[in-house]
Amino acid sequence: MNTLDLDEELNRLESEYKKGFAKPLILLMLAEKENYSYALAKKIIEKTSGKISIAIPNIYPILKSLKKSGYIQENKSKDHSSRVFYEVTELGYALLDDLTESLQQFLMIFSDLIDDYYEKRVENKK
Amino acid sequence: MNKDEQQSSELPENIQKYLSLVKKHIPGYKEIKKGVLEQFILDIQDAIQSTDKEINPYLEFGEPKEVAANLYQSQNWIDNITSLKIRSLAFIFDIIIIGVIFSSMIILGYMLINYEVYLDPLTENMIVFVKVMGYLCYVLAPIFYILYWFILEMISDTSPGKRILNLYVIDVNGAKSKKKQIFIRNITKILFPVLIFDIIPFLLEKNPNYIRVYDQAAKTIVVKIK
């Protein structure tokens, strides 16, 4: 496998796992402050220092799915424009409480696994 | 000009072209497309206002087809698959509409060809004209029949009978269905015997939300769009 293939594979893997984090990420952002699609997309870029970005049109189906499950709700804009704002519901906060705990455990496990990997790589190089 | 049209017309030309490409991939009538695009247009306006440079919509939002896919996935259309009862009702409406027009054309053709019975003696030129019109009705009736089932659905994603009940034929993924898909799902309208492949599984399944074999083959669904 050459470098180009490796880069492609890395991009594919990154894209796969980032997709899995899209819903929790959007929920976390909305838990901070109710927001609308465009501002949400910009906030994700800003908060993750550009490491994660979700194209605006990709946000719509995620918002729909979260709304359908009852984790977020739609609010009409206060300035009487047709803009729709989204905010986390009580059910959404309950989900986030459990989800953040589970995510933290998951990240800790992965962090340990990555540390083990680095240690082994260093040993092998010696 | 309504609010949505005003919103779109205020956008730069390249964005308007881009939006028209996105619209092409969204099923349904103009009014429905407006509803789907409303939030997206607001987001585009925000994106334009956030920079002094001209934005490239392809880079900023993605390919029109993908954008359309996300927009229709954000709707509830796919969740509103119509029951067989409602689809049958739409079919009855269609049969009534098509029956009235088709039989009127055939009767008119017959009356014109047999003009002697219905009209006063005519001049030679009038006889030719009336007979040609009569045969034209015979030719146009089946063309109308084909146009009704195939072309109308290809253009507007619905037939008049379905339109009455706000039903639309869309791709299983929610996209606008392709011509080939419409042809496959309507094949029973011209090859009546193949309808048997629809009836047998339905009788065996006894499912009120049964999806026709030809809809399954075409990968289309009939949904209610509010």
List keywords for this structure.
heterodimer; A: 126 residues; mainly alpha; Arc Repressor Mutant, subunit A; two-stranded antiparallel sheet; 2 strands; 71% helix; elongated; B: 226 residues; 12 helices; 66% helix; 4% strand; flat
Task: Describe the protein's topology.
The complex is a heterodimer of chains A (126) and B (226).
Chain A: H1 3-32, H2 37-47, H3 56-68, E1 72-76, E2 84-88, H4 90-125
Antiparallel strand pairs in A: 1-2
Helix pairs in contact in A: 1-4, 2-3
Chain B: H1 3-9, H2 13-24, H3 30-49, H4 57-61, H5 64-73, H6 84-113, H7 115-118, H8 124-156, H9 160-164, E1 167-171, H10 179-185, H11 196-205, H12 213-218, E2 220-224
Antiparallel strand pairs in B: 1-2
What can you see in these coordinates?
The complex is a heterodimer of chains A (126) and B (226). Chain A has 126 residues and is mostly helical. Chain A has helices spanning 3-32, 37-47, 56-68, 90-125, and strands at residues 72-76, 84-88. Chain A has one domain (3-125): Orthogonal Bundle (Arc Repressor Mutant, subunit A). Chain A contains four helices and two strands, in the order H-H-H-E-E-H. In chain A, strand 1 and strand 2 form a beta hairpin. In chain A, helix 2 crosses helix 3 (56-68). Chain B contains twelve helices and two strands, in the order αααααααααβαααβ. Chain B has helices spanning 3-9, 13-24, 30-49, 57-61, 64-73, 84-113, 115-118, 124-156, 160-164, 179-185, 196-205, 213-218; strands at 167-171, 220-224. At the A-B interface, helix 2 and helix 3 of A face helix 3 and helix 5 of B.
